[in-house]
Amino acid sequence: MQELTIYESLGERELFIKKSPQELTPADIGVEAVRVVLDETRTFQEMDGFGASFTDSAAFLMNQILNEEQQAEVMQRLFDPNEGIGLSVVRNPMGASDYAREMYSYDDLPQGETDPALNRFSIAHDEQDIIPLLRQAVKWNPELKLMASPWSAPGWMKTSGSMIGGELKREYYEAYAEYFVRYIQAYAENGLQIYAVTPQNEPLFVPGHYPGMLMLPEVQSEFIKDFLKPAFRRNGISTKILCYDHNWDKPEYPLTVLNQAEEEVDGVAWHWYGGQASAQSEVSRAFPAKEVHFTEGSGGEWIPAFEPAFSNVFRTGIEILRNHSKSFVLWNMALDENNGPVVPGFGRSTCRGIVTVNQQTRELTYTLDYYALAHFSKIIRPKAVRIHSDSSVDHIRSVAFKNTDDSIAVVLFNDGEGVENVSLRLRGEAELSFSMAPKSAISIKAAF
């Protein structure tokens, strides 16, 4: 080995600390070590990267509440691969989500009016905060990939006549496909390429107090196959189409869509609010040519204490990657001291952002999600290929990648209740031995 780069987290007061090999806790002599072995001949998915979302709320906080110096600091720490953690995927709502200051789409009309030709389509709302921040992010990291998902079609396209509730009216399938085309084209005019879209965020969940829209799998299949993909082809759009965009507990949904619209779908997007990450592999085995993406997972007060929350991001993140995902994207890039702003009528929010921007004091703080993402994103870079890793005990969780510069990146998490000696075989005879405290994490990049 020519060089080792190591980051370690030992608890709330020691998060993502850069260390030399000599600064790691040495293994206890005479105590058997857990062996972690890598196999570079067994390869899996290529990574797009790690990230979060510039919701309306997050973009407002970062663009309007922070001063210029704070904004420059946080953008660098989020997106710069050298001085920051190099986030490389952003997945944004198309219009309002639950984390927005108002209800809005890109074609809002007075009650009773319709606009099937989309004459009043406009992304002016995004031009205030979201687009300026995305442009900055791309400057910090030119490899950044942008994904987009609507929480709802414009209200006039729906059976409810509102962005809340209802389904897409069949007579507006064509207009809704054109809505995606206009969005992608408008962002391109602002110098931003949309890498992938999903037809609907969480299509099986219809909230009663913020934007949402029921889209059953048969409807999604028809919409993609007969309307969305043809509209992309007509307009020379290469943006990928990912189906589903919901929890692990309903793998039958993406399986239905892929069975009915396989040629028009590029992959499946997943969330973590139900089920197990193994669902990703279940669908991938049935359709191995289709990409796997993890597009939303939020931490929050339902796991309030530091250790359980930090551990959850780690164990789940490792499982997401071990189950073939090309991306690992958390939720809000920023929230305020009250876990907001949220749409009117939402009630109390319990979600946690990657950073917290206090609207009263204007203080900027980095949450445990930032440091957990850092362990992955800092060393596993875009186009890295996952390689096989195997641990001799289940509670030493591992995931490993080979970067394009031939370096090896390994993330380890001790999910046990006791201290463990670990012996990591990197390449050939190169081996690293150290001790891991319970619920601690280590990220190692080895250059040869």
Automatic annotation (TrEMBL):
Q: Which InterPro entries match?
A: GH (IPR017853), GH30_C (IPR033452), Glyco_hydro_30 (IPR001139), Glyco_hydro_30_TIM-barrel (IPR033453), Glyco_hydro_b (IPR013780)
Which residues does the UniProt record annotate as the domain Glycosyl hydrolase family 30 TIM-barrel? 48-380
- Which ranges of the sequence are coiled-coil? none
Protein name per Swiss-Prot or TrEMBL: Glucosylceramidase
- Indicate the family of this protein: Belongs to the glycosyl hydrolase 30 family.
Q: Which UniProt keywords apply?
A: Glycosidase, Hydrolase, Signal
Q: Name one Pfam family in it.
A: Glyco_hydro_30
